[in-house]
Amino acid sequence: MTKMSGDRAAWISVEQARTNNLQEVSVRVPKHQITAFTGVSGSGKSSLAFGTIAAEATRLVAESYPLFVRNRLPSSGRADVDRIDGLMFTTVVDQRPFTGNARSTVGTASDIAPLLRMLFSRIGEPCAGYSPAYSFNDPSGMCPRCEGLGTVDDIDLDQLLDMRLSLNQGAIRFPAFEPGTYRWSRMVHSGLADPETRLSELPDDVLNSLLYAEDLPLASPDPKYPKSSNFDGVIPRLRNSYLRKTPSRLTDEERAGLARIVTRQPCPECHGARLNQAARSSLIDGRSIADWSALPVSELRDLVHGVHDSRVNPVLTAISERLRALDAVGLGYLSLDRHSTTLSGGEAQRVKIVRHLGSALSDVCYIFDEPSVGLHPHDVHRLLTLLADLRDAHNTVLVVEHHPAVIAAADLVIDLGPGAGTNG
C-alpha cells in the first residue's frame, strides 16, 4: 500500500480551507474515531465540519449520479478548499425539526414502526395480514375515513357562508369565491341560483347543489359557462383544490381563509388510531398496535420485555434496542404515535441518532451538531455511549460541541479560534 492510500484509509485530510471565516485551515481528522470540533461561537467549527467536509462529500456523491439525476438535485458548489482527501459517505445529523409530512411520527422517523408492524403480522391475534396491513400509510391498513391521518377536516358552514348575502354580495367567504373571481363566475353562470337572491331565501335543493354537487350536469347554464364542464359545488372544490394541497403550495390569503373555516377533529371511525378495523382488532397481550404506539417509550419497553415467543425473538430484540436507545437519549417520555413535526430541534436530532444506530451500513461519516443540547447531565453520558456505539460499528463520528463531557469523551479535539470571525 502506498503512503497516499494509507493516509486516505486512515484520515480525512483538509488542506487550506477558506469556507466562510476559515483562514487557510488545514487539519487531519482520523477515521473510525470520535472527533470534537470546539471553539467560541463564530470560530469556524460549523464552517469546517458542515460547510467544508460535509458539503464536499455531498457534492462528490452527487457527481457520481447520471447527468439527468444531477440536473434534478439541488445545486451544490465546490467547497472553498484547496484539497480534501479520504472523504467517505457522509450523513449530517442536525437540529433541524422534521417538517411538512403529516404522516411522519416518532415511530416512522426512528424506524421502530416497521418493526412493530412485523411483530403484529407474526403473532397478532387475529392476524390482519402481512406488515403493510398494520400501516396507516398503506391502503391495506389505513382507516378509510381519514385515509390514515387520524383526523378529519370539517368545513364550518357558519364561518364559510353569510346567509344574509347573495352570491353577488360575497356570501361565500373564501378568497377564491369572492365576487369577480373565476370560482365565483362558475357559480353565477351555472344557472343553479339567482345570484341576487340571499342564500337564506334559496330553496334547500338549490343551496345543497351549490354547496355539495359533484360533477353535476347543468340543465340550463348561462352561455358564458364552459359547455364541456359539469359543476362542482363549493365544498368539493374547497376539499380538492385547497384542503388536499400542502400548506406551502397555498398563498398566505388562502391559508388564512382555511384557518378560519376549517376545523380539525379526531376521526369518528378510528378515533385517531389511523388504522382500519382489521388492524385495530389484532391484539398482542390485549392491546392493538395503536395502543402500543400510544404508550411512552419507557412503558413500551416494559411491555416488549413481557412478550415471550421464540418465533419473533429477533424482532423483539431489535425493537428493544431501539427503545433502549430512545430512552438513553432522554426521550423515554415520547410515544411512537407522536407527530414528528411537533418535536423540537434537539428532540428531532436525537430521534435521527437512534435511526442511524440501527443502520446496517458501516464506514459512514456522521456529523452531529451539538447533540447534547437540551439533555440532562445524566442523559449526556448515555448519549456518549450511543456515539461510541456508532464509532465501534466502524464509523467516523464528528461532533460540533460545547459540552465538556462530550469534548472529554472524544478521541481527538480540534479547537478553532482563539476568537470569532477574523480572529478565528
Automatic annotation (TrEMBL):
GO molecular function, one term: ATP binding
UniProt keyword Nucleotide-binding, yes or no: yes
Compartments, as annotated in UniProt: Cytoplasm
A GO BP annotation: DNA repair
A GO CC term attached to the entry: cytoplasm
Keywords for the protein's UniProt record, in alphabetical order: ATP-binding, Cytoplasm, DNA damage, DNA excision, DNA repair, DNA-binding, Excision nuclease, Nucleotide-binding, Repeat
Principal location class: cytoplasm
PANTHER family: DRUG RESISTANCE ABC TRANSPORTER, UVRABC SYSTEM PROTEIN A
UniProt family annotation: Belongs to the ABC transporter superfamily. UvrA family.
Protein name from the UniProt record: UvrABC system protein A
Species name: Candidatus Agrococcus pullicola
Lineage: Bacteria, Bacillati, Actinomycetota, Actinomycetes, Micrococcales
